[in-house]
Amino acid sequence: MKKEIHPTYHDKAKTTCACGTVFEIGSTAESMHIELCSHCHPFYTGGGQRIIDTAGRVDRFKKRAEKATTTTATAKKRQSTTARKVAAKESRTLKAQGEAIKKKLAEKK
Questions:
Q1: Which of 1, 56, 65, 73 has the fewest Cβ atoms surrounding its Cβ within 10 A?
Q2: How far apart are CA 79 and CA 86, in angstroms?
Q3: What domains are there in the chain, each with its CATH number?
């Protein structure tokens, strides 16, 4: 092996997990911070599905989903308002057409 080109290897590198567990491993970095370890990962603990969210991804997803449902509700409300306006306009048009026909019939008599 060439000398001076390889990183130094630390036999007792300190690793800290998000759950608070600290243990030592061999690594080229002196210390590391990790999100999951064998003490908190559901595969190793035998627990069911558990959401481990350190970056706020789940909260952002829930906000987007909530926003989408409120947007959909607003759009439906807007559609129903538009539909009522169109129906009212058609009603007025039909009423006006009916009156025009009545006038024409009255003029012919």
A1: 1
A2: 10
A3: 10-108 (4.10.80.400)
